[in-house]
Amino acid sequence: MRRTLSIALVAGLTAFTAACGTSEDEPTTTPNASSQMSTATPETSSAAPSESAMSDTKDIVDTAVAAGSFTTLAAALQAAGLVETLKGEGPFTVFAPTDDAFAKLPAGTVDTLLQDPKGDLTSILTYHVVPGKVMAADVLTMNGQKVKTVQGAELTIKVEGEKVMLVDATGASVTVTTPDVAASNGVIHVIDGVLMPK
């Protein structure tokens, strides 16, 4: 499982980086796996959905809604007007914070963000998305490498034994608790915290 997540993350992040550096008229090439992001298979959180509870016949949004543990994320996507985007063709890789992850934020943070959905909320949500379908793989050698998100800021990969973390722009880290949740237009990797771009 770790091997699969790493390669996928590597591929998706590489595809995103390549897309950022090309114009619509230029063909986008897919870099080799060695230049992509890595992750290992972390322990599965009891709050995280099982893969059997989700189906790759549903898009990313419907898959998250069906899981039942992403109600805050779904509401935030709706408020920011990103639902239709993530229901699009994709593919997308989404690092999805659970309801418990959002609950770790300081009291009132989510409510404040929802009051200005086109501002910080959109920035934070797009910071959790990488273009391309980034599946699991053996990328434990990618420790310390940076990857660019749809928002534009970077995430840093940190590997400690079997645990893979994403370090955000503030220096805080979150752990991937459930990798490779399949969807028809991409993949979801469940995380135990909310990433902040600044």
Structural class: alpha+beta
Radius of gyration: 15 Å
Into how many domains do the coordinates divide?
1
Fraction of residues in β-strands: 15-25%
CATH superfamily: FAS1 domain
Helix percent reads 25-40%
Strand and helix order: HHHHEHHHEEEEEE
Count the DSSP helices. 7
Largest sheet at a glance? Answer: 7 strands, mixed
Instruction: Characterize the overall form.
Output: globular
**In terms of per-residue confidence, which ranges show pLDDT below 50 for 5 or more consecutive residues?**
1-54
- How many beta-strand segments? 7
Q: Averaged pLDDT, please?
A: 75
Euclidean distance between termini CA atoms = 31 Å
**From the 3D coordinates, which CATH architecture would you assign?**
Roll
Strand order of the largest sheet: 2-1-7-6-5-4-3
Notes on the protein architecture:
The protein is α+β, with helices and mostly antiparallel strands. The chain has one domain (2-191): FAS1 domain. Helices cover 32% and strands 21% of the residues. The protein has seven helices and seven strands. It has helices at 2-20, 60-67, 71-80, 83-86, 99-103, 109-115, 117-126; strands spanning 92-97, 129-131, 146-148, 154-160, 163-167, 173-183, 186-191. The protein has a seven-stranded mixed beta sheet with strand order 2-1-7-6-5-4-3. A hairpin with a 5-residue loop joins strand 5 (163-167) and strand 6. Helix 3 crosses helix 7.
